[in-house]
Amino acid sequence: MTIELHPNIDAHLIEVLETVSDPEIPVLTVLDLGVIREAVEKEGVIQIKLTPTYSGCPAMDVIGDDLKSAFAKVGKKVNVDLVLAPAWTTDWISESGKRKMEAYGIAAPLEETADKEALLGNKRIVKCPQCGSTNTHLVSQFGSTACKALFKCDDCLEPFDYFKCLK
Amino acid sequence: MANQNLYNYILGIADNSLVLGQRLGELCGHGPSLETDIAGTNISLDLIGQTRSYFQYAAKVSGKELTEDDIAFLRLERDYRNVLLVEQPNTHFGYVIARQYLFDVFHLLFLNELQYSKDETLSAIAKKGIKEVSYHKRFSGDWIKRLGDGTEESHEKMQEAVDDLWRYTDELFEMSEDDQQMVSEGIGVDLPKLKESYYDEVSELLSEATLEIPERKYFSYGGKNGVHTEHMGYLLADLQYMQRTYPNMQW
User: Fold this and answer.
1) Which CATH number fits the domain that encloses residue A16?
2) How many domains does chain A fold into?
3) Tell me, what's the ipTM?
4) Can you give the pTM of this predicted structure?
């Protein structure tokens, strides 16, 4: 198991944080996603700074509520603050998060320039999470949620989501 | 109110996103294809998300017991400060795309400047928005090219939409009193400075799409002062329906 570093998160809170997942991609915990920017316990109350992936992401309200109920189970109170700066980037998704995403059937974000080429339909580089082929094409720049685009594999013919690079 | 100019200024920016978001939301389930339907609602979601950030901030600045919902749903038509362009109806898909592109180019130029605002909250919202709006512009610009340089019919319809909506472009650069005050405080964006880049960029893309650049000398103004086109009342009737029918209703 890789040890992930969370410099602004109190170590004793990690266990509970790992039980809270993204409601739209349930295999990813909020730590995998990198949306918890800070979590510290002060005078018995846990202060969490949460950042949205996209401005209108409806999952944020749910994540806020889920954090409260997860800590309520261990008898702790939580204050959740939404912070916008610095803006979230897909670079904050952990390596293990990217692997879990692939296993779940969502192609993980490429690097910025490669991402642009893929989303403009110039290059066939997005790897199909089902069969691993890069013989894939863009179906729609927008997908089932704000963070994804829709692709189709031309080898195994399965459609799949691609998590867009955001920088 | 402690800072009326700032409050008005935030609302001016937010109302553009709110009203365009509402227009795109009307397409939900009515887009010409599944992909464009999803695109329209995704863009709408980004815009409404940005609006929420602005309204939450405006509510704080107001110093009153206001919520984001009060600001969104309980104002009268004359109190909305959005430009006329964004309230224009979804006449046909060409209009949806032309309206989107003509606004996206401005929106991105605007946020690129707003990120250097002395106001930290506005700067943070702008930085977040830049990432989203770049993607919107890529989508709308692609469609302008596809339809403009497409079939005879799509070309004609695209040209019609651009010609019709062109009259609302100059208002994007109009400076209200609040704009001027905010620029002098290092918070707001000096709009006339964006004008040249705007028309250069739009003209270049229209040419690429084999569309004529309209040569209109007369423009429509008024939205920034709350004087809207007739379409606005209908849009608000939809937008405000729930709160007007069931006051103080909550989800």
Assistant:
1) 3.30.300.130
2) 2
3) 0.84
4) 0.92
